Amino acid sequence: MPELPEMEHYRSRLSHLLCGQQVTGVVVNREGTINEPAEVFKASLLGRVILFVERRGKHLLFHLDDGYRLHLHLMLGGWMSYGEQAPKKLSQYQVILSFGNGVSLYFGGLRLGYLHRITAKAAIEELKELGPDALDPRLTLEAFRKRLAGKKGKLKTTLTDQRFVSGIGNCYSDEIAFDANVFPAAAVSGLKDEEIERIYHSIRNVLTAAIEAGGYMEQPFTSDDTVTGGFNDLCQVYDRGDEPCRVCGTTIQHETITGRKMFYCPTCQPKGA
């Protein structure tokens, strides 16, 4: 599932490519992906100009010149492509937006995800439960400690709770825990002060590095894209079960916690630490 680094990578690319562009064509191949009849969706978007693209956690909001927003949540398996030609058959995309410069934005894999046209007020309502962005400068170490105070449950489930902080999912919760040398299933209530500080700094270090590397999703954004997915080869533990730890050589372990995959190094992240 795309997480904060992937969505920030998309936001950065889309802001450069789409801001000021007018929607000249709309294709809807799966009406379940949108929130209104396809003909209404198409008619409402034609002629609209994208003013800017905003990211909120794992969500993107395309701000339109009529005050509406396109609310995108890729969920599990969603991705985007941009260019003059689609890299796959057009029928494989749930929604396609075309622009006056001869290029299109293709939304694929939205079987669980969605692209909804909503008002500014509705956008606020839909996202009101999100916690602070994991990279929000206002989320200081002291603020992070306060949010953890009184929390129950495991570290991984807390980090992936979008009401606690927004933007972190399966991949980066494991990478953050590894970077902080903390067992991902450690009880939050039992974390030491120094562990909390390491986790806080690891959130920023890992997410920033992942953004710079283009995230871990390998689906190219454009035909000449050599950046997207660059962090996939840099993952220290995620999806590396049974492979040696790059730090100590111990075999990476793979378990399941509350239905989520969890990868860790038993030497670098001892359970009893």
From TrEMBL:
Residues covered by the FPG-type domain: 236-270
Matches recorded under SUPFAM superfamilies: Glucocorticoid receptor-like (DNA-binding domain) (SSF57716), N-terminal domain of MutM-like DNA repair proteins (SSF81624), S13-like H2TH domain (SSF46946)
PROSITE patterns the record matches: FPG_CAT, ZF_FPG_2
Names of the cofactor(s): Zn(2+)
Domain (Formamidopyrimidine-DNA glycosylase catalytic) ranges: 2-100
UniProt keyword Zinc-finger, yes or no: yes
Alphabetical UniProt keywords: DNA damage, DNA repair, DNA-binding, Glycosidase, Hydrolase, Lyase, Metal-binding, Multifunctional enzyme, Zinc, Zinc-finger
GO annotation (BP), single: base-excision repair
Pfam annotation, one family: Fapy_DNA_glyco
Membrane-spanning parts: none
UniProt catalytic activity: Hydrolysis of DNA containing ring-opened 7-methylguanine residues, releasing 2,6-diamino-4-hydroxy-5-(N-methyl)formamidopyrimidine; 2'-deoxyribonucleotide-(2'-deoxyribose 5'-phosphate)-2'-deoxyribonucleotide-DNA = a 3'-end 2'-deoxyribonucleotide-(2,3-dehydro-2,3-deoxyribose 5'-phosphate)-DNA + a 5'-end 5'-phospho-2'-deoxyribonucleoside-DNA + H(+)
EC number: 3.2.2.23, 4.2.99.18
Gene Ontology molecular-function annotations: 8-oxo-7,8-dihydroguanine DNA N-glycosylase activity; class I DNA-(apurinic or apyrimidinic site) endonuclease activity; damaged DNA binding; double-stranded DNA binding; zinc ion binding
UniProt-listed InterPro entries: FPG_cat, FPG_Glyclase, FPG_N, H2TH_FPG, Ribosomal_uS13-like_H2TH, Znf_DNA_glyclase/AP_lyase, Znf_FPG/IleRS
Similarity comment: family membership: Belongs to the FPG family.
NCBIfam families, sorted: fpg, PRK01103.1
Assembly and binders: Monomer.
PANTHER family per the UniProt record, alphabetical: FORMAMIDOPYRIMIDINE-DNA GLYCOSYLASE (PTHR22993)
Protein name: Formamidopyrimidine-DNA glycosylase
Species of origin: Cohnella endophytica
